């Protein structure tokens, strides 16, 4: 995606669009409704917080375009705001505020609004054949899908780091012991040049002991808040019982320590769909088992 040198957008745009503004990107629609790829192929990638300007030149489309629909990473469609110049050329504004894929499509005569799209997608009622006909008609009135990938903006102690600059080490969380030991456990990880640790799930495990079979998806396992024995002494230590908020605060302090003192970011699996047989969720909803 090419850096832009556009005219300023219509008033109300929160990001000023000048050639000196970082994080402003530009592309244009071809006659078939796809993006023009400047110097390559594949999806466009922009960092979170970018403003993407999508140019539609007058007279380039086979049929009149009414607008441009963006579907964000959570599946929410919306009509993009736009401005037009004296020649009838239109510029659509995409504010890339959420990491993930955005689907971009031109809408033509008879195309549904973003609200109609959302309602049609969620409605379970109505004649199935009629719904299929409506969906086919909607597809005919919408252009092809263009994908823009919005990357998260990562920093280590305030210094930006690109995604390709990450060097990740996976850690089996329950082999690490309590968070009080993490600093000395990860000192050698820093010395080997890693700048991110991927933790296996930290939530409360079920009776099997597997970190991918959880008894409580909403609570950090008390295993990680143990009073560790003194250096060189045998023993497992004893676990503290913390409420969910205290557990998250303690874990957050450990994660912040890894970044500030060792320059290491943290990532973990967020397991929500693996439930242990002794989970309270199953006791409350036995039909789910």
TrEMBL record:
Source superkingdom: Eukaryota
Residue span of region Disordered: 113-141
A GO BP entry: glycogen catabolic process
Domain Glycogen debranching enzyme glucanotransferase: 160-289
GO MF entries: 4-alpha-glucanotransferase activity; amylo-alpha-1,6-glucosidase activity
Biased composition regions of type Low complexity, renumbered to the chain: 129-140
Pfam family, one: hDGE_amylase
InterPro entries in alphabetical order: AGL/Gdb1, AGL_glucanoTrfase, GH
Protein name: Glycogen debranching enzyme glucanotransferase domain-containing protein
